[in-house]
Amino acid sequence: MIRFALIGAGFIGTVHAANLAAHPGVDFRLVYDVDRQRAQTLAAAHGAAAATELEELFDPSLIDAVFIASSTDTHAGHLRRAAAVGIAALCEKPIDLDLERARETATFAQECGVPVMVDFNRRFDRDYGELKRLVDSGAIGTVELIQLTSRGPSMPPLSYVAVSGGQMRDQTVHFFDLVRWLSGLDPVEVFATGSALAEPAIADYDDVDTSAVTLRLPGGALVQIDSVRRTGYGYDERIEVMGSEGMVEARRHRTGAVSRYSGTSVVDDGLHSGWFERVQPTYAAALSAFVSALESGETPAPSLEDGLKAQAIAEAAVLSLRSGRMEPVKY
């Protein structure tokens, strides 16, 4: 069994803790959080122990892997500490909000030779996996256009916006990764435009809440991504891939598949109330993929390189938002 420690006992930490405790290949040992009471409560709920000092998590005689789910500004430091002592790491995105620091940290971890996976969990969505299989099989011919939608149900607190890195780095970055994964190609150019419509005050943070991004892939294929922080009708996420010989799509997920007919009206079940309800199963699937990679000795994916490339696209998109021009992606 893989001996795991979890860093971070906030909302996403509680999600990962439940998955760690439920996984048959995991020995869930330790939880650490700067809030000791929160760590103790979470650990007790899942049969683990709460670490009183962070150093306890970086003892390779006790721990094989750490799950880094703490605040974004701590990811790089924790990853470096794990790599330095030969402990594998599953890390929430991003490695660091500063791309250069993220690159330096990734290089260090790669030189240490430890397995590291970046938790781009949407790759493990069942429907997206089927899209990937069909595209890779050649069923739709050569990819020519990809359209992705990421629309959240409500604005996050401005306190979150202030430390998130902005819509491109925080929300749309998941879809930059999906573009690379589905197409097998690295975008070469990006144009982004956006507005502060749901929350005008978000502009004070040099950010937007409603955006449209166009990516150009090698060979000329195009990608369109629309991202919205507030819909008013639920969480809306979908992907369409058009090729030279056909098209595949992963449609909106509704809460059910029942339609109610009355007179001239048809009432269908609506969308999930939040993003988490839509993607919850992907977190357990991502953990399983990481554990399987450790057990088999294979390289985990999404890799550090995947994380850096998605972040490089996000940086180019941020630059385009500010310049109003198509910007090259610098990997």
Number of strands: 15
Beta-strand percentage? 15-25%
**Straight-line N-to-C gap:** 37 Å
* Count of helical stretches: 9
The H-and-E topology, N to C, reads as EHEHEEHEHEHEHHEEEEEEEHHE
Largest sheet: 7 strands, mixed
Regions with little confidence, pLDDT below 50 for 5+ residues: none
* Average of per-residue pLDDT values: 96
Give the overall shape: globular
Radius of gyration equals 20 Å
EC number: 1.1.1.18, 1.1.1.369
Domain Gfo/Idh/MocA-like oxidoreductase N-terminal: 2-120
Keywords: NAD, Oxidoreductase, Signal
Pfam family, one: GFO_IDH_MocA_C3
Description:
- With 331 residues, the protein is an alpha/beta fold.
- 37% of the residues lie in helices and 24% in strands.
- The chain has helices at 11-22, 36-45, 75-84, 99-112, 126-137, 158-164, 167-183, 275-296, 304-323, and strands at 2-7, 26-32, 49-50, 65-68, 88-91, 116-118, 143-151, 189-195, 210-216, 222-228, 236-243, 246-250, 259-262, 265-268, 327-328.
- Strands 12-11-7-10-9-8-15 form a seven-stranded mixed sheet. The chain has a six-stranded parallel sheet with strand order 3-2-1-4-5-6, sandwiched between helices.
- The longest helix is centred in the C-terminal third of the chain and has 22 residues, at 275-296.
- Its EC number is 1.1.1.18, 1.1.1.369.
- InterPro entries: Gfo/Idh/MocA-like_OxRdtase_N, GFO_IDH_MocA-like_dom, NAD(P)-bd_dom_sf.
